[in-house]
Amino acid sequence: MKAFNVLDRNLPLFGNKSISASAGTGKTFAIEHLALRFLIEKDLLLDRPYTLDELLIVTFTRAAAKELIIRCFRAIKEALFLVKAWLNDEDLNTPLDFLKQYKEEGKERLRQIKHYLEIAIQSKSEAAIYTIHGFCAKMLQEHAFDANIDNKGVIFDNFDRLGLDRLFNDFIYLNLNEKNISASQLNKLLTQREAREHLKNEILKLSEMPYEIAKNPPFFEYLQNFKNIRKNFLSRYKVTKENVISDLKAFFIEPSRKHDKRSLIYFSELLTHLFDETKEDSELFDQFIAESDTFEDFSIYAKKAEAHSIKKKPLYYPHLYEDLNETLSKTILEASQKERILLNLAFSFKSLLKKKTEGSEYFIPDALIEKMSLVAENPSFQETLRERFKSVIIDEFQDTDPRQWNLFKKLFISPGQKGPNLILVGDPKQSIYLFRSADIYTYLDAIGHIDKEHHYSLNCNYRSNKELVGAINRVFKADYAPDFFKLPRKESSFPYESNQADETRKIKPYQDDLKAFHICLAEVKKEDLPSLRHSKDNFFEEKYFFPFLASEIIRLHTQSLVPFKDMAILVHSHTQADTISSYLKERNIPCKIPKPKSQIDETLLEDLRSILEALHELKNESLAKSALTTTLLGFEAKDLKKMEDLLFQEDVYVYLTSLKKSLLEDELGIFFEKLFNFSIEGYPSPKDRLSKQVDGDTYFMHFQGLIEILLEEARKSRLTSYDLISLLKDPFFFADPELEKELQAYFEEGKDSVIIETIHSSKGLEYEIVFAAGLYRSSNKKEAIFPSYSEENGFTLKVRNQEDPSYLSYLDELEAEKTRQFYVALTRARERVYLPFPIYEKTTVDTPLDLWQQALKKGSLSGQEELSPLLNFLEASKNEISFQYLEKAPVIVSFEKPELKPLIFTEASLYPFKRKSTHSFTSISKALHDLKEPNFECASPVEKPLLPAGIETGILLHNILENVEAFNCRNLKEIIEKRSKGTSLYEYREEIERILESSFQAKLLNFTLKDIDLTKSIREMDFLHPTHRSSQEEEYLQGAIDLIFYHEEKYYILDWKTNWLGNKKEDYEKESLIAEIEKNRYDLQAKIYREALRKYLAIYEKKPFHEIFGGCFYLFLRGTVFGPESGVYFIPFKES
């Protein structure tokens, strides 16, 4: 294949192409500059370049689509910067050869290119860069009439988990009946803890897969078959229990365990029930299904019965057992097989799902592709899209499945007709998602539609250093490992093409003599194993690899200063990941297993719910015990027994009471800090205890992230601690994808941990150091449900059957995919790969390493008999690859575990800071003056406020003022209605409206609130301000400025005050306001606000603060009803 150099001006840009993009070869760079070239180079047929909306780029994840948008526009902006510089006669150089040609053509041409680029930037919102599902959704939305769907919009991402959950609940109530499934069949599925949730997840997972589901018989069909079998038996056999027992004694294998359900007596009773005509068919068949494990040995018994009747005394029923095996046993075992029952339910649920979404704007991804494929049959729809898109780039094409490719073919390839430029970008060596329906043969079929002269490759590896690129080329060299990348369905293979290295890239030095590719050998002998049952892989890990892994990670981190997060351990499975994670954490090495989705740990939510509920109801002993035994507070059963001691009980009560006092009186952030740092006398604080636990730091980080989100929500929505309990129970709140992203970003931030992830999830990522730990392990688990492939029907989910040719073909494809996993694992590293390599006798070839060794035996190095092919390879590659024999059980090292950092909440500060304790202005003013809220019931025996006083009123009025679109009366009534509904102030709506209407007309110097442009304002600006006290620990004031606005070239601060000073006009005149200001130290508050604003404006404003700051208004809302100048207190700025 020809090299693809997107920067070369002579590269033929237009026409169909396939681009093979090996790992690390700059695939995204090529795509972004292809897009750039299409936007500035003329298509000769159109005599113009393409516009942004005529360029379609499809990739396979939302993250990849987002990155492509960012990268494409960055390339456009950089090109525009160069063009503008050249037009200004600046002599800037660039590697973009295709762009240089326009400079050579002169300024007129440059001005034309500048125009094209500016148009592209202005039309950013029209960029057609989607996932495959995003593309389908967009097209169906725009062509809703052709698609016969509601034109409100096509939703596929958020026919969300909650929507599916509700539909599943409907399905359970409507479809779980005796016709579809029996009680015993359902019990087969409900064996797990939280069985209903597990069953739901399994059915949803199967129904969302992009496969058809093979229809399996429902219960009533199996029952009908059973009835026919039983009828036949009743007509042929008349049996007694005694005779059955006599027969069974001759060949029955009595289990070793007493009272086993397979005992002779039990088995004979079960058989004689079959011939008891008083037993009802449905009830008996369901009983047989419940005891299906009893029938698993029928084939053994049938053979023994046959042999016994020939050689010894004839049996009473010599043919009965063979008949039972061939008919009844087969039906019972099939009807009781979990996977068949599950597929039957998934088939029914998927059918329901299709009916529910037909004609709707809601789609699950699978239904979305199907709908789009149907619409794509319409010739006018095809023509519309071919006219619209002039060039189509499909990224990660090796992950395409047959239906997706058929869709693209219908839309963009038409024999004999001119279609858009179709550019397929992918790498067959990285096709490792068979379980997600990715089909390497689809990739090969697709590139077969493109002339070979237009097959290109990206063959320069920019990711890995020169030494590592050379080593990987040797590993896959065709002479050494011929036919390694097999294609079982075609009975052939595809070749490996060596990559070039970036010669300008430097190799990072480490304080050792290891090569960039290092193999860790260990010979495991059968006699070394503690027992015959001990796994060789486990023994290799425990005695050789894990100790080396831990010591090497620590050495690289301490000696060569490699951050933990730049080291990755690629594993075979989540089980292996958990094992390695536990081992490293026991040695204090920070590590993490990234979650595929940022899901909030239910334990975390339950812990916080339990604690808050217990604090609100201290007299409830049950709630108190639940709170104390959470992961956070860490009590054990033995600790709870101590509560029988009255003195200890009192200690617990004092502890919980102090937390409750903080919850009700302190800022929430301060309460959470106390929660982590307070403890019962004689017990460690939660923070101290977690710092000593294996996973304590992870729990701490996640708890902190959750609290950060809750604090923000509490601030925005003015929540109480009671509201938080409700929020923690709300599945809709935590199902918000934006919230999940926010939490995930928080968990990842600043966490220096070794990454442990599967080879599949590592694709597309890169690390400085990689330990390829998943290549010597194989899966003993064979999937019971698999995607069966046929030319006629494509992929269909079926139950495993060892005699099914499609299942055997599937196993061959899985094995071939392991060779590609081998390639993906070795190409994630920038600087070094460690390949652990256990050596022991094996009778099977079932791991990626086995397959590579098998290929070596067929290669050019296999002829030297004195050495094994592996050692021959290592000898021939000693300049590129180093190796060592690992020591058995070397000295186990541990990393010194860092202390947990203090609990810190950011709360949208105005400037970077770290703090250990925070205070609100209110808490400080109370401490200074020992203020208490006035008891309005007692203040005057006659006078009461027209609008109740207190915190709830303040929260409601602030909430309304935060949400008005402008300070006028438009929509004010509706906002008051909405915000007050459900509160105790709902009946005071008219008084609230009167107060706010008058406040909008209050005279602020020479203007009113109605004159303010709210687009030049900030409402509820959070800040933190250092106290500069002499305390050794850092302390900060936290607060929120109600309103900052810009008017007539000045910035002003405005604070809403809901204080009730009386019901008369004189209560809100200047003297009364001054007294209230001094009593509550609002003058001090104004200075704090002013300093916070000064620091903020210093970031943006060049003018001195005293020239642009107008002053601070305190608007006592209740007083504004007495006139435009009533209730207004202004503090002008005076430079101190």
From TrEMBL:
Superkingdom of the organism of origin: Bacteria
Cofactor(s) required, per the database record: Mg(2+)
Catalysis performed (reactions): Exonucleolytic cleavage (in the presence of ATP) in either 5'- to 3'- or 3'- to 5'-direction to yield 5'-phosphooligonucleotides; Couples ATP hydrolysis with the unwinding of duplex DNA by translocating in the 3'-5' direction; ATP + H2O = ADP + phosphate + H(+)
UniProt: Mg(2+) binding residues: H958, D1042, D1055
PROSITE patterns the UniProt entry points to: UVRD_HELICASE_ATP_BIND, UVRD_HELICASE_CTER
InterPro entries the record matches: DNA_helicase_UvrD-like_C, DNA_helicase_UvrD/REP, P-loop_NTPase, PDDEXK-like_dom_sf, RecB, Restrct_endonuc-II-like, UvrD-like_ATP-bd
Any GO BP: double-strand break repair via homologous recombination
Sorted UniProt keywords: ATP-binding, DNA damage, DNA repair, DNA-binding, Exonuclease, Helicase, Hydrolase, Isomerase, Magnesium, Metal-binding, Nuclease, Nucleotide-binding
Bound cofactor: record note: Binds 1 Mg(2+) ion per subunit.
Cited function: A helicase/nuclease that prepares dsDNA breaks (DSB) for recombinational DNA repair. Binds to DSBs and unwinds DNA via a highly rapid and processive ATP-dependent bidirectional helicase activity. Unwinds dsDNA until it encounters a Chi (crossover hotspot instigator) sequence from the 3' direction. Cuts ssDNA a few nucleotides 3' to the Chi site. The properties and activities of the enzyme are changed at Chi. The Chi-altered holoenzyme produces a long 3'-ssDNA overhang and facilitates RecA-binding to the ssDNA for homologous DNA recombination and repair.
Free-text comment on this protein's domains from its UniProt entry: The N-terminal DNA-binding domain is a ssDNA-dependent ATPase and has ATP-dependent 3'-5' helicase function. This domain interacts with RecC.
Remaining remarks: In the RecBCD complex, RecB has a slow 3'-5' helicase, an exonuclease activity and loads RecA onto ssDNA, RecD has a fast 5'-3' helicase activity, while RecC stimulates the ATPase and processivity of the RecB helicase and contributes to recognition of the Chi site.
Protein name: RecBCD enzyme subunit RecB
Gene, per the UniProt record: recB
